Amino acid sequence: MQSLESKNRVFCNGRCITGHNIGIFIFAVLLISIISGLFFGFDCPYLTKRLSPAIPIFAALLFLMVICCILRTAFTDPGILPRATPEEIRYLEKSDNLQNAPLTGRVIEVQMRGGHVMKLKFCQTCKIFRPPRVSHCSLCDACIANFDHHCPWVGNCVGLRNYRYFYLFLFSLSLLCIYIFVFNIINIVLRAQDASTVADAIRDTPATIVEALVCFISIWSVIGLWGYHTYLICRSMTTNEDIKDTWRSTRRGETLSNPFSRGHSLLNCFSALCGPLPPSFLNLRAIIKQENNIPKTATGTNNNLHDTLQYHPDENGIYNNRVWDSSAENPPHSFQMKQQQRPYVLRDYV
Amino acid sequence: MEVTTRLTSEHSIKLFIQRDYSEGTAVKFQERFPAELEGKIDRGKFVDIIRHVNSIYAEAESLSCKAFMENCCACLTGYLLLLCMPTHYEKCVRRAAQYISEENDRTLTQNGIFMIDPMEKGLRCIEVCISSNR
């Protein structure tokens, strides 16, 4: 049994995965869209006439980038590690009996090249020894590779596989905030020059003041967070490690340096943002064999939204066929055909 | 397929080759010979297979110019590029899976051993099944 037991939601035939509670994420997307919409509706016509038509074009590009990045962050698998199968648990219980402890209390110590001793703790929920930098997210109820934090604004964990999108989101959002704020002020100043007083100018475009206020409030936290993550990337740390102060604690008087740092901050940036990215460890698009004639099937492409997808390996085999990007190899119709032959096992999302 | 079903019957033993984290979080499996396989297969042969799998994953994880260019291009196209072509990492993972299945056909199944692509376990361990009816 290898179904996805975490609290994640899965959309679009397993192409998208996101966290349990996405209310704040929807709020964030709406807020960004509304503020940008007000900017396009109320400021851009005047600014285009007065200054240049390039202003709305750049704003639109930035806005698209922000939306792409937030969607990408929210719907990418952050690096969820699949849970152990019963056979694996049995094997782990049999082996390494030196500690004479139940599996849950065991710790594996790994001597690293740099002299560090990493302690791999056993995860009670996922039944695995958590590899270095893996942490269990209680909100998603899954172990996440390179766990950074669970971000409510994107409604998903930020981990190995979506950290770069998250960073780009912060970067582009900072730019968008500054851009809108600066042009709000320019708008008011120019209108105040045309009209006689500032009050008249504000009365002409009430939306501008609202935008400027929202931008002014959010600009500090967004830029602050972006700066913080830049600092973390340069030092090759995760938020989780920074909060727990993993690498700055001194033991026996000597300071332990971060073993995952590549030595130079530029190199760290480079590997965090442009380094190789592993494919998802989950096999969400696998075609599931029907177990005992579950009546509910999905044959269309979109009617399984908001449903949690369970995936099982074949009854008699452990070799759970991975469907390597079927989109690239098979034309869409052939994939749908396969889907109709062997439907997904679906369960209502509770 | 016939081999798979035979080997995963109740009479088989499974063992798991764990990851080696001594060099960091890069994917690397322990290159030691498991005691359960004693007498089933040549020690050097088995370690060689693990070593080769490790080398494929090391190539996938390496900070090469190619991976850098690939990611930069993907970023510039809004990551739409990744929808149309597999990444360097994906190619390597597929190559490792292919290598393992080739080795299964070539040497391992003859000795009653079946190795499974580590991607099935989220790259945490390599699952090896030993058939006991041999």
Automatic annotation (TrEMBL), chain A:
Coiled coil stretches, renumbered: none
Keywords of the record: Acyltransferase, Lipoprotein, Membrane, Palmitate, Transferase, Transmembrane, Transmembrane helix
GO cellular component, one term: endoplasmic reticulum
Domain of life of the organism encoding this protein: Eukaryota
EC number annotated for this UniProt entry: 2.3.1.225
Catalytic activity: L-cysteinyl-[protein] + hexadecanoyl-CoA = S-hexadecanoyl-L-cysteinyl-[protein] + CoA
Gene Ontology molecular function: protein-cysteine S-palmitoyltransferase activity
Transmembrane stretches, start-end: 21-42, 54-75, 165-189, 209-228
Subcellular location: Endomembrane system
GO BP, one annotated term: protein targeting to membrane
Keyword Heme: no
Membrane topology: Multi-pass membrane protein
Enzyme class: transferase
Domain Palmitoyltransferase DHHC: 118-245
PROSITE patterns given in the database record: DHHC
Signal peptide span: none
Domain notes for this protein: The DHHC domain is required for palmitoyltransferase activity.
Family affiliation: Belongs to the DHHC palmitoyltransferase family.
Entry protein name: Palmitoyltransferase
Organism, as annotated: Rotaria magnacalcarata
The organism's taxonomic lineage, starting at the top: Eukaryota, Metazoa, Spiralia, Gnathifera, Rotifera
From TrEMBL, chain B:
Domain Golgin subfamily A member 7/ERF4: 15-127
The UniProt record lists the keyword Endoplasmic reticulum: yes
CC annotations in GO: endoplasmic reticulum membrane; palmitoyltransferase complex
UniProt family annotation: Belongs to the ERF4 family.
Membrane-topology descriptor: Peripheral membrane protein
Listed transmembrane segments: none
Major location (coarse): endoplasmic reticulum
Subcellular location: Endoplasmic reticulum membrane
Superkingdom of the organism of origin: Eukaryota
Protein name, per record: Ras modification protein ERF4
Oligomer and partners: Interacts with ERF2.
GO biological process: protein targeting to membrane
Protein keywords: Endoplasmic reticulum, Membrane
Organism this protein belongs to: Rotaria magnacalcarata
